[in-house]
Amino acid sequence: MIIKEASFVSSNTEFEKCPPPDLPEYAFIGRSNVGKSSLINMITNREKLAKTSSTPGKTQLINHFIIDKSWYLVDLPGYGYAKISKSEREKWQKMTFDYLQQRTNLVCTFVLVDLRHSLQKSDLEFMEMMSENELPFNLVFTKADKLKKNEVERAVKAYLGEMLQFWEDAPASFVTSSERRDGRDELLKAIHDYNQL
Ligand code: GDP
Asked: How far apart, in whole angstroms, are the C-alpha atoms of residue 159 and residue 154?
């Protein structure tokens, strides 16, 4: 899929105020610093569409972008930032879970995890919430350029193996590097295929 147009629509703290749910929508989420903004910019071919924030955990907004007038890409606030206060965390949780559970046009969520790390508690908790609510998600491994090719394969296998302790099946997964623009075609193809359903 070739992206011709990608533009910012709105930032919201309440899912009710998000754009009318009239197009298929795909959300991107992960621990802060996982490489989410870089990935969004890489897949949309826009250097500064999603802001790479210098203060992780600061921006707690649901950001909508419209792609080729045909689907929404949603940048959700990151989680797992240690220094965040309990009330900020609760605010994040309410805003994000309300959105994920009630947004009627949300087709699938892409959960980003750093390929160099094992299954983290915050990722596990998030993915368990998704499963419990029967919300479909795919896994996106980020920063693959930081590992050698054989290490990438090993890391993916180990991560998916860990997931099988909690799930019967592992989700679909994508290996990406925003630095090298790896995984872009595969991600866009998946979204294109969903859009045809
Ligand atoms: P976010 O907080 O999840 O939006 O993460 P950012 O996109 O702001 O990235 C966090 C840090 O990781 C920044 O220093 C990026 O330059 C770096 N980063 C993001 N993606 C990649 C990648 O694919 N490869 C490498 N080597 N670094 C990356």
From this structure: 9
Residue 1 lies in a domain: no
Look up the ipTM and state it.
0.99
- Summary mean pLDDT of the chain: 93
Ligand 1 proximity of 33 Cβ (cutoff 6 Å) = yes
Residue 31 lies in a domain: yes
- By three-state DSSP, how is residue 30 classified? strand
Q: Domain span at residue 11? A: 6-196
Taking only the tens place, the pLDDT of each residue in 16-28 is: 999 999 999 999 9
Query: Ligand 1 pocket, 182 CB below 6 A?
Result: no
Q: Which atom of ligand 1 is nearest to the CA of 50?
A: 4
Number of domains forming the structure of the chain: 1
β-pair type (71-75, 137-142): unpaired
CATH number at residue 28: 3.40.50.300
Q: Which atom of ligand 1 is nearest to the CA of 182?
A: 23
Ligand 1 neighbour 77 (Cβ under 6 A)? no
